[in-house]
Design a protein that fits this description.
Blueprint: E1 14-23, H1 31-51, E2 60-63, E3 67-71, H2 78-98, E4 105-117, E5 120-122, H3 124-134, H4 136-144, E6 149-154, H5 155-160, E7 175-181, E8 184-192
Parallel strand pairs: 4-6
Antiparallel strand pairs: 1-3, 1-4, 2-3, 4-5, 6-8, 7-8
Helix pairs in contact: 1-2
Protein name: Guanylate cyclase domain-containing protein
GO molecular function: adenylate cyclase activity
Organism: Saccharothrix coeruleofusca
């Protein structure tokens, strides 16, 4: 867990964007290779955030060995994060592949309620995000596609954000996915490749320092 405190008042419940990543095939690696993957993962996430104008030092992060679970600040531009962070992460992973050090990963996002607990985050948002990230249908999508990154978002995030087409988000690039875990049904949308349309002419450049 990072030393950035979750900015939630005592006994408070907040609505936030949660982002989680997980590296493919990590558990099959030897300890030395796992350490190298962790280094590359940290670097590629930092670089993607930097290119998207995002300040990861303000994110509350729980480290997961082969990934992390992050809560973004209240002032985050959700459409910007879904579009630009994902796009720049895919670009950075492509650069790693061309350098001969490929890294493949799943990326999950959801907006929902959460608060702080004695052993970490509590609430709907982190649970749904982790369920999406670990879903078999998402793992299969990454295994079967030719991309280094697969994005999965919750149905709520798709309806509230992707359908707006802000930041050139393209709903047609997402396909619905439904699955059950621990007798609970979940619905999400999976995107392989970039989540934006081919025409970026109307998009805004700059930073979202969140």
């Amino acid at each position: 867990m990072t030393d950035v405190a979750l900015d939630v008042p005592l006994d408070g419940l907040v609505y936030r964007l949660v982002v989680a990543v997980d590296v493919e095939g990590y558990s099959k690696l030897h300890a030395l290779d796992q350490a190298r993957v962790q280094t590359r993962l940290s670097e590629v996430l930092d670089e993607a955030a930097r290119r998207a104008g995002l300040d990861r030092s303000r994110w509350y992060r729980q480290l997961r060995g082969d990934g992390e679970l992050a809560v973004l600040p209240a002032d985050s531009d959700t459409a910007w994060v879904v579009a630009r962070f994902t796009e720049h992460l895919a670009e950075a992973l492509g650069e790693l592949r061309r350098a001969g050090t490929p890294l493949r990963m799943r990326l999950a996002m959801h907006c929902g309620t959460l608060t702080s607990g004695r052993f970490g985050l509590v609430g709907d948002a982190p649970i749904v995000t982790c369920r999406l990230l670990d879903a078999h249908v998402v793992r299969r999508a990454l295994a079967e596609c030719g991309e280094d990154l697969v994005l999965v978002i919750s149905e709520r995030l798709f309806e509230d954000v992707v359908r707006t087409r802000f930041q050139d988000l393209d709903p047609d690039r997402f396909r619905p996915a439904r699955f059950s875990t621990k007798n609970v049904s979940y619905s999400g949308y999976v995107c392989t490749g970039g989540p934006r349309g081919v025409s970026h002419g109307g998009s805004r450049e700059g930073s979202r320092n969140t």
